[in-house]
Automatic annotation (TrEMBL), chains A, B:
Keywords: DNA-binding, Transcription, Transcription regulation. GO terms for molecular function: DNA-binding transcription factor activity; transcription cis-regulatory region binding. This is TetR/AcrR family transcriptional regulator. It comes from Pseudothauera rhizosphaerae. Pfam families: TetR_N. InterPro entries: Homeodomain-like_sf, HTH-type_TetR-like_transc_reg, HTH_TetR.
Amino acid sequence: METAPVKQRIQLDRDAWVQAAIEVLAEEGVAGLRVEVLAKRLKVTKGSFYWHFQDRRDLLLAVLHYWKDGRIRDIVKQTRAQPGRELEQIYHVIDIYSTTRSRRGMMIELAVRDWARRDPEAAAIVAEVDDTRLRCARNLFLACGVPMEEASSRCMLLYAYVFGLSLMVYDRFDSDPARLKRDIADLIARSAAMKTETPATAS
Amino acid sequence: METAPVKQRIQLDRDAWVQAAIEVLAEEGVAGLRVEVLAKRLKVTKGSFYWHFQDRRDLLLAVLHYWKDGRIRDIVKQTRAQPGRELEQIYHVIDIYSTTRSRRGMMIELAVRDWARRDPEAAAIVAEVDDTRLRCARNLFLACGVPMEEASSRCMLLYAYVFGLSLMVYDRFDSDPARLKRDIADLIARSAAMKTETPATAS
DNA sequence: CGGTTTCCATACGGGATAGTATTGACGAAT
DNA sequence: ATTCGTCAATACTATCCCGTATGGAAACCG
């Protein structure tokens, strides 16, 4: 399980810093992502950090690109459906984002998006990810027989919903959040234009 | 237009600080809300601040409550419809939040929600606001003849959508965002259970 | 084995910020 | 006019943090 028999280093590399940075990002947001804090977490000093990175900004950009690559990899995987099971896959995508299961991923997602509201470079990365996501999801709708414009509307609604949902605090509102989410998934996914009428609710 | 003929003070009071704080909050987020920065913006020094507030936390809580009151006031106003025009009002609510017109308000909204992700007190405030909003919006759906559970789903979808939308960067995705938003509004507002079939798209 | 490279520790300067303590200015009441 | 209460300026301490400079240890190379 060693990375390489020759040249095994127990030392930190750029990637280790980026990984830890993403952890902090999820917990504290970009504002809490300080190099000395990060160094303490990795049990080294800044001396190490400034060896691997030019400055703080350098780390932030690395985090951004690391996140982007991971997201896009996941997206294409999640939106690849066996022919005929596209609707099922749509439900699956909604489910992935709206459950507490992927809490960590959503925390990172929200931290990056908040970051992007004030940082053009982060905004550009989010734009790429969103574009990919929307196109992939739209293809699923198209494969279900939904016309282009409606497919666009529905996939946009889908992603806006899942991100917005994790910004809300709705404990007091509904006693059965599971039912709520199921019904909302139907509102998003079910189109009159669809081939399948009563889809097996992919759970 | 004077506040009071007697006792007019040109000096700062708590409220002036809170107002300015919300301005900074919109621009920089909670993390950027520092007392010295705020003081500079108001052209005074911290000496003034610590007279009006116990500490930074004191200001933050004041901001939170000020925001809550304003939100709830707006919500009840926005969701009050003349009988028979409830559907129109639903479209209006969607419109309010999804246009760039109310950009400032949305920036504050997002800043508070990001804040709430790490601060229990902020989360409690957001919970109150969300609960009020959801119930008010649900009443609109109910008034349209939509059954309870569907009304719950649709109003939740409504708010999650508008917040999520302002987190996304979709410039490249669609060439006609106006049409997109219109169609999505239809997906959210239009129910099979509705009395009115083809509502005049309140623009 | 000695030199070189790689990675990290330490020490330092400088800036931003929270909070306190003290003083000062100004208007209002007596 | 004197006094008092209100609000703000100044000065100071203590942190936290970025970035740099420099030295040191361990691995690697010849």
